[in-house]
Design a protein that fits this description.
The complex is a heterodimer of chains A (456) and B (107).
Chain A: E1 2-6, H1 17-23, E2 29-32, H2 39-49, H3 57-73, E3 76-79, H4 86-99, E4 105-110, H5 118-123, E5 144-149, H6 154-161, E6 166-169, H7 174-186, H8 193-206, E7 234-237, E8 243-246, H9 257-265, E9 274-275, E10 280-282, E11 287-292, E12 295-299, E13 302-304, E14 309-329, H10 333-350, E15 357-363, H11 370-374, H12 378-383, E16 386-395, H13 398-405, H14 411-414, E17 419-421, E18 430-441, E19 448-453
Parallel strand pairs in A: 1-2, 2-3, 3-6, 4-6
Antiparallel strand pairs in A: 1-7, 4-19, 5-14, 7-8, 8-12, 9-10, 10-13, 11-12, 14-16, 14-17, 14-18, 15-16
Helix pairs in contact in A: 1-3, 3-4, 6-7, 7-8
Chain B: E1 3-5, E2 10-17, E3 20-27, H1 33-39, H2 42-48, E4 57-62, E5 67-72, H3 93-97, E6 101-103
Antiparallel strand pairs in B: 1-6, 2-3, 3-5, 4-5
Classes of the chains: A alpha+beta (456), B alpha+beta (107).
Chain lengths: 456, 107
């Protein structure tokens, strides 16, 4: 049996979680997910300004804190912290190990970054069509800011087999981070589709951090103990592919069949066809049972052969946006916010401003659930203590968005009464970096594994 | 006929893939699952999210988990960074669906 922990569900997650996973109980592997879909474009921008940037700095700081513990407890780390520059991330980790005089072997997994090859692909007839709209990439080619294939578990398993203690990758499929440890430890092979699917589902269950251990859980949320000290998830994987979801003893949170089911359904599409680079997993085959306190056993998982494609995540610029807010107070807060919206829109119209999209929401009245399901009754609406008017615009034309941003604050003095700003000044105009999902034949992408032992 | 709010019979989680939101609902007791299958149809979910979900609604059954998964196409104002919504990832659509009133008589 091996223990695989997750210590980071996204870039911006708890800085303490990975440290606690290492120190508060036994684990064999620590996996960390730092990359959201739009993160790559931000990292690409950073690298274009500085060739030594473009990776998750939080990861380097975290490794510096726990390196002695990792060595003492023989814990190995796999993280997609390399972003668009795994080499620079590796250099930073090796530098920090050197300063502490701790020898360490780091591996990088790269080859996922296909930004420089897009024109070659298009020339070869690989159109990189948008999976949602069907449009070919050529439609937005000049706006592309980053392009990365979601690589699978095999190159990471290879890095572990070659003796890596820390594996730093670029873009990889999130569940593959955990699956790689199982392929390495249990010598699973292509063709062991049921086991590979088990490992993939185990990876999916822990990839969002505490969301499987009591965080964001709807069942009896008010009685879930000590979320201030919530334990992050750990999978105890058996060689046959069955596993338990658990967390360190003495930590907060709660693991039940219900909390596990909620995480299984997160971001799910067709449950019999959960496609990752390594296999196709069938969520309708999962058998769950409560195997003890804070312990859920998974078994019976079935899978099928991998597809011949990698998913590709491409980011591109798509104009500009700004979002502004004002707070209206009792009485008739909702009616005042709606009146202010009408006034604002009439002024934008008078200025001749045109937007690709304009959207108004009334936070406190119906913003989250929409007018159809959640419109407050007239009696309740009149009594709401406050309502936030939130208006956003998007346009190719930066000047139009900037002008909009200057029309919010005046409402404080020249619109409906009893209004407060949110104290944030004019809304910030930001460039929109949008996401273009596509598929690419696996034969077109070659993941590269390199080992970097620290100099002794 | 006993009308009850879905939240009494199920819990839920939602997430996103581009402009498509997924809402998974899970029976709080095994005996509630057939009621969910009977009552919470793709058509009813489409009606429930009128004005929010502009595309089709697909439903998938997971009897092993006592759960249904719905895909709400074109429901996130373009999705991701394009969306101007306060909740561009539809994270709160889980409890939005649980507002639905259903006939909760045993199957």
């Amino acid at each position: 049996m091996i223990r695989i922990a997750n210590g980071q569900g996204f870039w911006g997650d708890s800085l303490e979680a990975p440290v606690e996973q290492v120190r508060r109980g036994p684990i064999d592997y620590l996996t960390l997910d730092y990359l959201a879909e739009v993160t790559m474009s931000i990292l690409q921008k950073q690298r274009s300004r500085d060739p030594k940037a473009g990776y998750a700095h939080d990861f380097v700081d975290m490794i510096a804190r726990v390196l002695p513990d990792l060595k003492e407890r023989r814990i190995k780390v796999i993280a997609n912290a390399g972003g668009v520059n795994p080499g620079a991330c590796k250099d930073a980790v090796l530098d920090s190990a050197k300063r502490q005089c701790i020898p360490i072997t780091v591996a990088t997994v790269s080859g996922d970054d296909i930004m420089d090859r897009l024109d070659d692909f298009i020339a070869q007839g690989i159109e990189l069509k948008n999976m949602e709209s069907g449009e070919p990439l050529s439609a937005i080619r000049t706006q592309v800011r980053s392009a990365n294939a979601y690589v699978g578990a095999w190159p990471m398993a290879e890095a572990l087999a070659k003796g890596a203690e820390i594996v730093i990758t670029g873009r990889v499929a999130d569940p593959s981070l955990a699956l790689a440890t199982m392929i390495h430890e249990f010598q699973w092979k292509r063709g062991d589709w049921n086991r590979l699917a088990s490992g993939t589902i185990a990876g999916h269950v822990i990839e969002c951090g505490a969301q499987s251990t009591g965080g964001n859980c709807q069942v009896d949320w008010e009685t879930i103990p000590h979320l201030e000290d919530v334990g992050y998830p750990i999978v105890e994987m058996e060689p046959d592919g069955s596993f338990c979801l658990t967390k360190h003893a003495g930590t907060g949170g709660r693991i039940t069949v219900a909390s596990a089911k909620e995480q299984l359904l997160y971001e799910m599409g067709d449950p019999v066809e959960f496609i990752t680079p390594d296999c196709v997993s069938d969520f309708t085959s999962i058998h769950l049972e409560q195997a003890g306190p804070d312990r859920v056993r998974f078994s019976g998982i079935r899978g099928r052969a991998e597809t011949p494609f990698y998913k590709v995540s491409i980011s591109y610029t798509a104009g500009f946006k700004a979002i502004g807010s004002m707070v209206y107070a009792w009485p008739d807060a909702y009616a005042k916010a709606r009146a202010a919206d009408r006034i604002l829109r009439a002024r934008l119209e008078k200025l001749g401003l045109r937007f690709d999209a304009i959207r108004t929401e009334f936070l406190g009245a119906n913003a989250c659930h929409g007018i159809a399901s959640a419109e407050p009754s007239p009696k309740l609406a009149a009594q709401l203590p406050e309502v936030v008017l939130r208006v956003g615009v998007r346009s190719e034309n930066r000047a139009a968005v900037e002008r909009f941003a200057k029309e919010i604050a005046p409402l404080a003095l020249n619109g409906p009464p009893v209004v407060a700003g949110l104290g944030m000044g004019r809304p910030r105009v930001e460039e929109v970096v949008a996401y273009w999902p596509a598929l690419i034949p696996k034969t077109a992408v070659t993941p590269e594994v390199a080992l970097w032992p620290s100099e002794s | 006929m006993a009308k009850r709010k879905l939240i009494e019979l199920a819990h839920a989680r939602s997430g996103d893939k581009g402009d498509t939101s997924n809402v998974g609902i899970i029976a709080r007791q095994p005996e509630y699952y057939p009621i969910l299958v009977r009552e919470v149809t793709a058509d009813r979910v489409k009606q429930h999210f009128a004005g929010v979900c502009l595309g089709k609604v697909e439903r998938f059954e997971l009897p092993n988990l006592g759960a249904l998964n719905f895909l709400l196409h074109q429901s996130l104002d373009g999705g991701g960074t394009l969306a101007l919504k306060a909740d561009p990832q539809g994270k709160t659509y889980s409890s939005a669906l649980l507002r639905m009133e259903i006939d909760a008589d045993p199957v």
